[in-house]
Amino acid sequence: MLDYLLLKRVSICKLMLLALMWIQFDENSQNQLTPDYSSSLQVENLTWLGKTSVGEDVEHFCDISNTNRIGVWGEILKLKLVDLITDLPTCLHDASWFALLAITMMLVDKELDRVYVHPQYEYFSRTIALEILADLGDYYLAKGHPYLDFPLTLEDAKSLLPVNKKQELEIELEKFIIDTYEDDFDDEAPDVRQFSSIYLQEILKEFFAESDWHDDINQEAVVQLQDKYGSQYSEGAFSAETDGHERWGKTLVFLKKFIGMDSSFIESQSDLFLDDESQAADLPDYFCIESHLERWQDRTVVLSRLVHTLVYFLLVGQNYHPSHLEDLMAIPASSRTISSLQACLGVAAYRSGYYMAASNIPESEVGRNWLLEKAFPDLLNFYQTGRLSGKQ
Fold it and tell me: Sorting pLDDT into bands at 50, 70 and 90, what band is 198?
């Protein structure tokens, strides 16, 4: 079984690469860019917005430039590749961390409207979302968390009960059905088999929704019911080809839980917009971000470092060490300034291949296969050329 922590870090890398693609996609559509240009993040998915406490543009994240965003993502990645549960230092870090999810939601919605951030892969954002759920979440979530939407019979519902306490929960379920009927009709309950299927299904949904063992349902039974009734019975997205903004909104909500995103950054404004500088003294350090922005001004530098970290980690996985980055980035690769994402990815793939071959660092199959075969197959030639050069 693959290391869960490795899968989580790979998932973070996927979300960051997707966010960088969004920035490049948006900037390519602009006629003229200023150094402080900021791509507009507008999440319009009402289902997603209703389930999260963060606004459509993600507070604090919306206040900074794209270059600042790339810089703070680089700092977040540096921290997360060492310690996944570490607290992030400022509201800007937490907002930028949360923005990865918001950007994914926005890009999924754009794909549904036939606007594609990856020109060769129309299901790119949706596939990433489902891959992460399958890697980090319960299997039934990756199938579209369908059990609440099946046309459940009583026997179907019983099959979904957690195996380790199925007998006692069956008794609870039957009592719940009778009590609900009596509350609804103030009448003596008939034989459950005489209930209409629609009425029974609503009771069963309520029983599951109120449970505290929600996450322990019998996942094998979920798969069997999906086969029995069909994939159209799903509250969320059951495949990358799933249509429907509402379904995807429900699906993306679950990523917040598994990636570990915090929305405490919405509790106060930052020091960027204080009317009086003296107010900064009363502001917690967590909401003081202005001084951090000075470190992230050179687009070429911040983009190169973030992309090299992403590419190298995906290729080496558990063999990653932060100290490798300085040696890797010192490898000669190009004499020209590299400012575009695609060019930076190519250089990072070449240098990573070179460094791995020269230092005898093995590949990590899970990240390598995704990066070079599924996401960016054009990078394979750069990587292989680097490996050949590194062996010489």
Answer: confident
